[in-house]
Specification:
Length: 333
């Protein structure tokens, strides 16, 4: 792992705080940069401010860059603001990091960059989502994150900056806000039920997200440039994809014979169908990443009447995205 200081952007945010906690616990000198004050923000400002970024990078050997405008900000920020923060800000941070001799740069991206590629047509099998799937972004959030990934690859190739891009799946506690999820479907599944189901195919615990970042920080100099899907390890295989789309419950019952009794005890249900599966095999193989939280672990915790979340997830809780509650998302309190 690179010696010296580590710069964490978005340090007041959900993942930023988690990274700051983990780095400090591991004995690293971590600098937190954010537009918001917080116990983990040491420098207040934006990644779009090049002079400030340059100052923050003095003596820094690794950069972890989760700062971003998220999908929930689409209701409060315009497209230009997304371009300014997610794309132009990332470019500034990359170029200044290369100039400062940073040895390791980790960019936090999102599986939302896959966009419409995540939703197969009616009658088709569930989508098997690896790093090789072509992006079809569905909104400005996905567009700017995918573009920022390409800028990461460009700067890495042209200026020799070691960069690892991590496409993270859902790790925040708020419920699904997709436009194609009807209110009656949301009402039919308690939040805990939805979260547990998602560990089969599209969710990851924040503790595992943090460990992926730390592994990426360590491995970036030897990788040069890499892009990885970060999600809980799925129990499914490509041979399961048609059955997943048509009747997920029967497949999950065969893989986890004890799940139905626990779900029945809680009044929970499995989704009738699953439309995509995130595959983390490349991250495990090339980063040496070992995620600890999956559906089996969640189910065992539920059976023992324990909180299935990691201690880190419980400590951080919900961070929010706005000064006031917006839709299904929490406010910053």
């Amino acid at each position: 792992m690179p010696d010296g200081k580590v710069l964490v952007t978005g340090s007041a945010g959900h993942l930023g705080e988690a990274l700051m906690r983990a780095l400090r616990e591991a004995g690293h000198e971590a600098i937190g940069l954010d537009v918001l004050s917080s116990p983990f923000t040491t420098v207040r400002g934006s990644v779009t401010e090049r002079a400030l970024v340059r100052e923050c990078l003095a003596g820094v050997r690794a950069v972890l860059h989760p700062a971003t405008l998220h999908k929930p900000h689409m209701g409060s920020h315009g497209r230009q603001e997304f371009v300014d923060t997610n794309l132009t800000g990332t470019l500034a941070l990359l170029e200044e990091s290369a100039a400062a001799g940073v040895e390791s740069f980790v960019f936090t991206s999102t599986t939302s960059a896959f966009g419409r590629a995540l939703t197969p047509a009616a009658g088709e099998p569930a989508a098997w989502i690896t790093e090789d799937v072509a992006d079809v972004p569905r909104n400005i959030y996905g567009v700017t994150k995918a573009a920022a990934e390409n800028v990461c690859e460009l700067v890495s190739a042209e200026q020799g900056l070691p960069v690892v891009v991590l496409r993270t799946s859902r790790f925040f506690p708020e419920p699904d806000d997709r436009d194609d999820v009807r209110d009656d479907v949301r009402d039919a599944y308690p939040d805990g039920n939805v979260t547990a189901n998602e560990f089969l195919y599209r969710r990851v615990d924040i503790e595992d997200v943090v460990s992926a970042h730390l592994r990426a920080m360590e491995r970036a100099p030897s990788i040069g440039f890499g892009r990885y899907v970060i999600s809980a390890t799925t129990p499914f295989t490509p041979g399961d994809l048609q059955e997943l789309r048509d009747g997920a419950g029967a497949l999950v019952r065969r893989l986890f014979p004890d799940y139905e009794a626990e779900y029945a005890r809680r009044g929970w249900r499995m989704f009738p169908g699953i439309e995509r599966v995130y595959v983390n095999a490349r991250a495990r193989a090339e980063l040496g990443w070992r995620p600890r939280y999956d559906f089996r672990r969640v189910l065992d915790a539920l059976k023992a009447d324990q909180d299935p979340r990691s201690p880190l997830a419980q400590t951080i809780g919900a961070k929010g995205y706005h000064a006031q509650t917006t839709g299904v998302y929490t406010s910053r309190e």
